[in-house]
């Protein structure tokens, strides 16, 4: 029994994570992060964690929010492309740092593009997305065509 559906086993904990996620999204919107950037952050964190369920979910959500296939296709190598604004690059770099917990801390994203509210919002989005990735992976969510 290596995989069990965590949301079914303890639905009250899952509901708290959903509330936490909603609060992080509200903070991101209040910090004036665009819906596209929010989805890019969620997708990039999911890519780093290898969560197929969340990669598919947030790719679809990003496309629905108006994101382009070109930008999504180069997201795994965002720093090598010219598709992303300085603000987006800073946010993606910060989200990667939160996900990887780099030691020593990486600060190449810290270009003064993000306001303190945006740094906090991106950090919370990455923290929440890391939690969702772990729920999906640990629960063995199926990802089939």
TrEMBL record:
Domain Carboxymuconolactone decarboxylase-like: residue ranges: 17-97
Signal sequence annotation: none
Protein origin, superkingdom: Bacteria
Pfam families with a match to the protein in the record: CMD
NCBIfam families registered for this protein in UniProt: ahpD_dom (TIGR00778)
Protein name according to UniProt: Carboxymuconolactone decarboxylase family protein
Organism: Leucobacter chromiireducens subsp. solipictus
């Amino acid at each position: 029994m290596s995989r069990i559906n965590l949301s079914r086993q303890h639905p009250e904990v899952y509901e708290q994570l959903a509330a936490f996620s909603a609060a992080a999204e509200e903070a991101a919107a209040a910090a004036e992060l665009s819906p596209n950037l929010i989805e890019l952050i969620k997708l990039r964190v999911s890519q780093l964690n290898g969560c197929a369920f969340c990669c598919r979910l947030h790719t679809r959500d990003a496309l629905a929010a108006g994101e382009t296939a070109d930008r999504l296709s180069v997201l795994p190598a965002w720093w090598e492309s010219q598709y992303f604004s300085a603000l987006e690059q800073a946010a993606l770099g910060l989200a990667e740092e939160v996900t990887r917990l780099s030691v020593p801390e990486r600060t190449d994203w810290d270009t003064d593009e993000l306001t303190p509210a945006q740094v906090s919002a991106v950090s919370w989005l990455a923290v929440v997305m890391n939690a969702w990735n772990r729920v999906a992976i640990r629960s063995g969510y199926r990802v089939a065509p």
